Amino acid sequence: MSDWLGARRIINAYGTNTRLGGGLMAKEVTDAMAAAARGCVEMHDIQAAASRAIVDATGAEAGIVTAGAAAALMLGAAACIARLDPAVMNRLPDSADVANEFIVSRSQRNMYDRALRIAGGVIVEVGIPDRLSGPGVRDASAGELAEAITSRTAAVFHLAGAAAEPSLSEVVRVARARGVPVLVDAAAQLPPAENLHRFITEGADLVCFSGGKAIGGPQASGILAGRGDLVSSALIQMLDLDLPESQFVAPMEFAPLNQLRYLPHHGIGRVAKVGKEEIVGLVTALRRFVAEGQGARTARWMARLAALQPAVPRATLTPDRAKPGLTLLEIAFADREAAERADVALRMRNPPVHLDASRIRRGLLAVNPIALDDADLPALAAALKECCA
Ligand SMILES: *Cc1c(COP(=O)(O)O)cnc(C)c1O
């Protein structure tokens, strides 16, 4: 309950938002990280072990642990541009002389896609998101996407989500026909746990997930999973390569690295290095996430909401439409101003309480159970009773 380094600890009923410190790690995960902190290992060996665990969980050919999903996007983009060419790896983010364009449906543009540009990517937008305009019903079409693919195309970028258009399967169909990979940002697409497999099954060549969101891994961890050659390219562009060339032997999991003409220098991903502690923590959390199963996880989350509901009897249990398996405890206020007053009052408390305020314009606040500590439930119930009842 205490403060850390003088920073005030909050009660996080918003969710696994990075701004609020992400989620919480189970003791098994922090124990594994503590143990990893007391030993050393060759980083490509521990990434090979992580790859085996990620392959088990996702069905992909290979996987690596990255410093967050945004880092996974940057590395995935670097892999799509450089492939297995060490000269291109050494030049990134300078990419003018190679295929460096990422085709994106305009409605899927978002501030995380800057990661593609950091790697040297150039974003090419397609379509008009007219369905968001009121009268319109259409968005980018698969045909428009197909026509945008040229010899300059490094990949098609897809932001996963129930509302994404064109759908991933349409994107995969046109991209495959033209021989370009599809890179998917699925950072926050868990739950449901099936999504660990889903995008790979639908034909994505690379998929990025956050480790610090629902998986329950370290806040600064993520996953890049997909085709062996592309994941291997991403890995070699992240590893520290201060070693004599002859000493580097690619683990079997990253066998495509044996095709490199020579060993590149530190790659573009060296600025987003991941520690052995994060790798061990993420893999431990991922195994737990898969083993627990969505039914048990949902029940654990629902028990928290059930403990809180008596504090605000008018609150309603509302399934999160974007995340099957997640239910929120939603509190409706008379108007936006009333919701804002309650939100401020909650955040002024000691400890401060943060509720999900993403629908505050509609006068709604909600308790999201994912990042809550069970030990905080009595204090949170008291805060809800005082500020929201
Ligand atoms: C959270 C998020 C990211 C970034 O994930 P990190 O693990 O915090 O780097 C990228 N894309 C989307 C859509 C996200 O929701």
From TrEMBL:
Gene3D superfamilies: Type I PLP-dependent aspartate aminotransferase-like (Major domain). The modification N6-(pyridoxal phosphate)lysine is found at residue 213. Signal peptide: none annotated. GO terms for molecular function: L-seryl-tRNA(Sec) selenium transferase activity. Keywords: Pyridoxal phosphate. InterPro entries: PyrdxlP-dep_Trfase, PyrdxlP-dep_Trfase_major, SelA-like. The keyword Nucleotide-binding does not apply. It holds the Pfam family SelA. SUPFAM superfamilies: PLP-dependent transferases. Its cofactor is pyridoxal 5'-phosphate. PANTHER family: L-SERYL-TRNA(SEC) SELENIUM TRANSFERASE. Belongs to the SelA family. This is Aminotransferase class V-fold PLP-dependent enzyme.
